[in-house]
């Protein structure tokens, strides 16, 4: 089970779009995936259209027992191989500016318990696991990929995601304020790695909503490349109306049949490949 956080410390750059696009690419390629919606706006949950649950990620952060996790996960309306740990406005109560160590590790503990229980043959959870398997076999994890959609602020919720993640995707748009937001997000990843999670690495910077032949966009992308070098993905996400149309219809961009949608989908397929190539087995929960 590999855990990836989509992160930005500036709102409105499209980090939820990236989380959803990556989830759609994983589903299209048969990669069993769980999306964890940590943003109190719960936009990822809305777009993924899961069945109602009797708990949310806020309850999991209150009490990370497996029974609570089970009640907070539902199959996505997008189809097989994609589940949602549903978000809610109430998650905001966990967004303390200076959380303690115990609070920060609740999400990580919940995810480890989720994998540990199902590897040892417990009940099915959502649509992504069959409950059977060798407890020493990473392939028996309920999900191959976990995607955490973070809020656009550096409080307990984002730090909880970074404490649980193996990789962080830093999302930017080609504007002056977003460039400074990426720098702060990169610094947060490095700080959390040194403080609590040595396995955490920045996967890279993905630039979203890029318009062709726009001199300001070209300048800001060049600025990002000067700051972060090869961490900036070579492929950028073009600004296409198909993204909003697919989200409005609660469908993955991969199923939206327009030239713009296919262009965006190709970037997410490439991103998925980079994510999966960066993976390594996680230790089982004790």
Word description of this protein:
With 286 residues, the protein is α/β, with parallel strands linked by helices. The protein has one domain (2-277): P-loop containing nucleotide triphosphate hydrolases (Rossmann fold, 3-Layer(aba) Sandwich), CATH 3.40.50. The chain is 42% helix and 13% strand. The protein contains eleven helices and seven strands. It has helices at 15-28, 43-48, 57-62, 66-72, 101-104, 106-119, 156-164, 176-195, 215-228, 241-248, 259-277; strands spanning 2-7, 33-37, 73-75, 82-85, 145-149, 167-172, 201-207. A seven-stranded mixed β-sheet has the order 3-4-2-5-1-6-7, with helices on both faces. The radius of gyration is 18 Å and the shape is globular. Residues 118-140 are annotated as: Disordered. This is Cellulose biosynthesis protein BcsQ. Residues 5-247 form the CobQ/CobB/MinD/ParA nucleotide binding domain.
Task: Describe this protein with a few key phrases.
single chain; 286 residues; alpha/beta; Rossmann fold; 42% helix; globular
Number of strands: 7
How many whole angstroms does the radius of gyration measure?
A: 18 Å
User: How are strands sequenced across the largest beta sheet?
Assistant: 3-4-2-5-1-6-7
What fraction of residues sit in β-strands?
5-15%
Weakly predicted, low-confidence segments: 119-136
Just give the CATH class: Alpha Beta
CATH superfamily: P-loop containing nucleotide triphosphate hydrolases
Taken from the alpha-carbon principal axes, the silhouette is globular
**CATH fold node name:** Rossmann fold
Which range best describes the helical content: under 10%, 10-25%, 25-40%, 40-55%, 55-70% or over 70%?
Answer: 40-55%
How many helices does DSSP assign?
11
Question: What's the architecture in CATH terms?
Answer: 3-Layer(aba) Sandwich
Which H/E pattern describes the elements?
EHEHHHEEHHEHEHEHHH
**How many domains in all?**
1
- End-to-end gap: 16 Å
* Class by SSE composition: alpha/beta
Let me know the average pLDDT: 90
Biggest sheet details: 7 strands, mixed
């Amino acid at each position: 089970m590999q855990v990836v956080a989509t992160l930005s410390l500036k709102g409105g750059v499209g980090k939820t779009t990236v989380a959803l696009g990556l989830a759609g690419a994983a589903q299209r390629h048969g990669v069993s995936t769980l999306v964890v919606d940590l943003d109190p706006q719960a936009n990822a949950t809305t777009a993924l259209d899961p069945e109602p649950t009797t708990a949310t990620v806020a309850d999991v952060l209150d009490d990370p027992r497996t029974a609570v996790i089970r009640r907070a996960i539902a199959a996505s309306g997008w189809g097989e191989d994609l589940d949602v740990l549903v978000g809610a406005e109430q998650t905001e109560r966990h967004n303390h500016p200076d959380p303690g160590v115990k609070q920060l590790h609740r999400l990580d503990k919940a995810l480890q318990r989720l994998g540990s229980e199902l590897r040892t043959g417990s009940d099915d959870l959502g649509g992504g696991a069959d409950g059977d398997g060798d407890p020493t076999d990473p392939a028996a994890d309920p999900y191959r990929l976990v995607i955490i959609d973070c809020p656009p602020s550096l409080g307990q919720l984002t730090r909880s995601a970074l404490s649980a993640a193996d990789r962080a995707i830093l999302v930017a748009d080609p504007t002056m304020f977003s460039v400074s937001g990426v720098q702060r997000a990169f610094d947060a990843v490095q700080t959390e790695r040194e403080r609590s999670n040595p396995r955490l690495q920045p996967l890279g910077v993905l630039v979203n909503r890029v318009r062709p032949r726009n001199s300001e966009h070209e300048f800001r992308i060049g600025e990002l490349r000067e700051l972060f070098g090869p961490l900036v993905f070579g492929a950028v996400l073009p600004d296409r109306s198909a993204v909003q149309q697919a989200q409005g219809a609660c469908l993955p961009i991969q199923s939206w049949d327009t030239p713009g949608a296919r262009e965006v989908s190709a970037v997410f397929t490439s991103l998925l490949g980079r994510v999966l190539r960066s993976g390594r087995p996680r230790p089982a929960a004790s």
